[in-house]
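Sequence in, structure out. Go.
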Amino acid sequence: MANPQTASSKNPADNLEANARTLAHGERALGAIKQLQLSAIPQNYELLYAFIAATDKELCNALRCALETHSSLTNEMAASIYKKYLDNQQVPERVEKVSSKVSQEMSDIMEVIEAASERTGHYGESLKGVNAKLSGIESPQQLQKVLGELFETTNDMAEYNEVLERRLANSKKKIDDLQMNLERTRLESFIDDLTGLNNRRRFDQTLELEMLEAAESGDPLCLLMIDIDRFKAFNDNFGHQTGDKVLRLVAQTMKTNIKGRDCAARYGGEEFTILLPHTKLAAAIILANQIREAVKTKELVKKSTGESLGHVTLSIGVSAYRKDETIPQFIERADVCLYTAKNAGRDNVKAETDLPRFRARTNAA
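Output:
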């Protein structure tokens, strides 16, 4: 969110106009919070302010899609959108902070090592001095004195080594903790908060990498586009909390039916994707039907009353990667298959081999 204090101008009129604009955005954001009956928390205010100010095109599209799909917005949905488009903007800052702490810890360790090297040098000089004294000893008393000095110097070095060992062990633990924090931060930026699946950002990155590998290796790669049938009506009839349970049910079913490098993700709203490396079209169609059937067999029951809410069905489109095609072309073909499945009555799977233009091209060949 833009900070009005940083948007200073040499022209006072410009400042007044900028302030008036930010105040207007703020008032509209508060009005939207009241209208949508969201909790009046800073996170929701920031989300609605960003939407009204149109500071992020993807965020605006996601929020519009959620409002059009569900006719409303729950705190859970708002939190999910915030986490994806605003909270994750803080990830680079969090990574930078962790990296800074690692650098500081490394600097401290270097200082300790330098001090230890200097201490070791002094110890070596002391040993040389003791050695020189030993050659000139003429009585037991002198020997006792020299050995006493040697014991004292060695004992001091042993104690210092213990302190050094503890310091280095403590530093190692700190760095290990910082590394775990860094990895956790990185992973959080790729996970959809509601379903626990990969988010759109992670899917886009994985798709690009897998297409590059498939192009180089010639191995098959398939894509499933999955949509929950009549989800808006389900939300309207039973409420958004039940709708969220449906999303989690579908996500969990997808998780249990994939393996290895398969990448399941929430693409947006009630739409999901599964990327299947090293999988031919026929096998991808079988998997799509397995997931569709598995979801369909699960009856939804309202816990508070025991009322049956019926069954959820899926429409799925399946496409196979073609060498040298672009990412939009690959996704669009799966999308066309998905809408073909919708138009065919829903609750079914359609692959590119079911598309008329595909059959016409195959017959012509």
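Check: The two ends are 56 Å apart (CA to CA). The beta strands are 221-228, 263-268, 271-277, 299-301, 308-311, 314-320, 349-351.
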